Amino acid sequence: MGVCAGLLKDHTGGLLIVEMDNLEEAEEAAMNDPAVLDEKLSTSMGTIRRFVYGK
After folding, report:
1. Which helix (H) or strand (E) holds 26?
2. Which of 7, 26, 33, 35 could form an SS bridge with 41, CB 3.0 to 4.6 Å?
3. Contacts of 26 (CB under 8 A, 6+ apart)
4. Nearest of 54, 51, 46, 55 to residue 20 by alpha carbon
5. Predicted local confidence at residue 55, as pLDDT
6. In this structure, what DSSP letter does residue 34 have?
7. Nearest of 44, 46, 49, 37 to residue 14 by alpha carbon
8. How many Å apart are CA 53 and CA 39, to the nearest integer?
9. Is the dihedral of CA 10, 16, 22, 28 positive or negative?
10. pLDDT number for residue 38
11. Are the C-beta atoms of 18 and 2 separated by less than 8 Å?
12. Close Cβ partners of 4 (under 8 Å, ≥ 6 residues apart)
């Protein structure tokens, strides 16, 4: 599920933040993206802590 997405300020790429149950699920989804499969885009990922401001 996409939470946030956008282009990098210098337009060299983009960022998509998703919430998944685990890193393996996210890796599988990324590696099966049509643009990644066609080698038009590449992917890298990691985990972050969730922070909700004002709650």
Report:
1. helix 23-31
2. 35
3. 18, 20, 45
4. 46
5. 63
6. H
7. 44
8. 37
9. negative
10. 93
11. yes
12. 15, 16, 17
The token pair that represents 48 in the structure block:
């972050």
Please answer whether residues 38 and 44 qualify as being in contact, where contact means their C-beta atoms are separated by less than 8 angstroms: no
To the nearest 10°, the Cα dihedral for 34, 47, 17, 28? 20
1-55 confidence digits (pLDDT tens): 557 888 888 888 888 888 888 888 888 988 998 988 999 888 888 777 777 777 6
HSE of 13, CA atoms in CB hemisphere, 13 A: 7
Residue with tokens 């300020």: 9
Give the pLDDT confidence score for residue 20 in this predicted structure. 85
Q: Which residue has the tokens 């599988």?
A: 28
2 beta partners: 18
